[in-house]
Design the sequence.
């Protein structure tokens, strides 16, 4: 299923000869303007990227490519077009300069996008620039048409849907509840790329499973959809307890169920799980054997310990294969955007940003992630449904 990704891709491109106009179709115009006079070795100069006929956009990403044996970019300044946007720039990219910006509010302003201050490393005999991997999209991730003047241009790969900022604020999660979950029912999170379970092309609009205590809850639909797949159970009264905290044992049990409840050959080396139900013991042994989880010591797992939001994403990332992708290029954006990004543990940051990039999580508000907060069953149901949509 197609993913809505947050994108800021490095490009590998050859420097192309200067072509004045790229005629994609009628629409906006990006113009790359170097100085009129060719610089000599050691001279500093500015290259300006501007935008006209702006139809209104929410995401912009591109790489301005140039020969780095001839010049270097020493500074990037964002212009008036990007002044209200969340932006990140990289002047030291392999082939040039990367710019990535996103916003929830449509930007319709014309003017300067960025100003690149450069230094000539040798005498420049001609201007050669290319604009690579351009993403120019509206709030619904629809590609907007554009022309490029003053540089060659290549289009992004058509299979990618790389809308920067798509997961930054929609469907915000509730703050976790302090009351622990009493009934050992399993939360839903995660998934497996080889899940054998039958599924339709799209999730049903109306879930089949309902719980009396989730009526009107912000995650009512996702809870029902996840329960339809058999990944959640209610308590003895039939309630879901959406705002109850999730324990470590409950978390790994859902992953085990999603994998088809495989048989476990060996026991886990944790003495403190001996009094847990057999399903928990099997799930913990399976998770430990596959490297998805660790104990808090060599002999303790802490099955009743609550799960933090960052730990949940770490385990889910491992469960998904642990691969790193384009989210690595957005670290600076996320660091700047989320007020509590410094609270993310170093061992969890890659996984948390992987979750943001793949729209599995958004935040507890528009600018906070609460990585140290406890995860609730409702939050994990939402993550689970997002995961299945993106990775099944």
Sequence:
């Amino acid at each position: 299923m197609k993913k809505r990704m947050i994108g800021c891709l490095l490009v590998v491109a050859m420097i192309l000869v200067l072509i004045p106009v790229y005629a994609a179709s009628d629409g906006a115009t990006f113009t790359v303007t170097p100085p009129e006079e060719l610089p000599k070795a050691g001279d500093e100069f500015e290259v300006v990227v501007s935008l006209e006929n702006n139809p209104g956009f929410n995401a912009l990403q591109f790489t301005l490519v140039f020969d780095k044996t001839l010049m270097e970019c020493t500074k990037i300044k964002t212009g008036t077009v990007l002044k209200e946007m969340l932006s990140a720039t990289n002047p030291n990219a392999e082939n040039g300069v990367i710019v990535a910006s996103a916003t929830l509010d449509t930007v319709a302003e014309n003017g300067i996008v960025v100003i690149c201050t450069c230094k000539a490393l040798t005498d420049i005999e001609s201007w050669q620039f290319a604009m690579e991997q351009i993403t120019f999209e509206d709030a619904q991730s629809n590609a907007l048409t554009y022309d490029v003047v003053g540089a060659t241009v290549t289009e992004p790969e058509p299979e990618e849907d790389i809308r920067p900022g798509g997961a930054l604020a929609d469907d915000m999660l509730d703050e976790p509840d302090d009351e622990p979950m009493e009934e050992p029912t399993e939360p839903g999170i995660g998934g497996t790329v080889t899940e054998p379970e039958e599924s339709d092309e799209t999730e049903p609009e109306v879930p089949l499973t309902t719980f009396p205590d989730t009526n009107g809850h912000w995650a009512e639909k996702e809870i029902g959809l996840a329960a339809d797949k058999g990944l959640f159970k209610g308590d003895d009264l039939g309630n879901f307890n959406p705002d109850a905290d999730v324990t470590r044992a409950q978390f790994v049990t859902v992953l085990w169920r999603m994998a088809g409840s495989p048989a476990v050959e060996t026991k886990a080396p944790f003495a403190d799980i001996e009094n847990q139900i057999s399903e928990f013991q099997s799930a913990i042994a399976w998770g430990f054997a596959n490297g998805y989880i660790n104990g808090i010591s060599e002999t303790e797992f802490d099955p009743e310990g609550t799960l933090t939001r960052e730990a949940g994403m770490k385990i889910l990332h491992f469960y998904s294969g642990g691969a790193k992708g384009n989210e690595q290029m957005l670290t600076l954006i996320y660091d700047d955007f989320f007020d509590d990004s410094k609270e993310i543990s170093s061992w969890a940051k890659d996984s948390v940003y992987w979750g943001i990039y793949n729209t599995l999580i958004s935040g507890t508000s528009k600018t906070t992630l609460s990585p140290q907060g406890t995860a609730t069953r409702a939050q994990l149901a939402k993550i689970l449904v997002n995961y299945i949509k993106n990775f099944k």
In short: The domain at 21-153 is CATH 2.60.40.680 (Immunoglobulin-like).
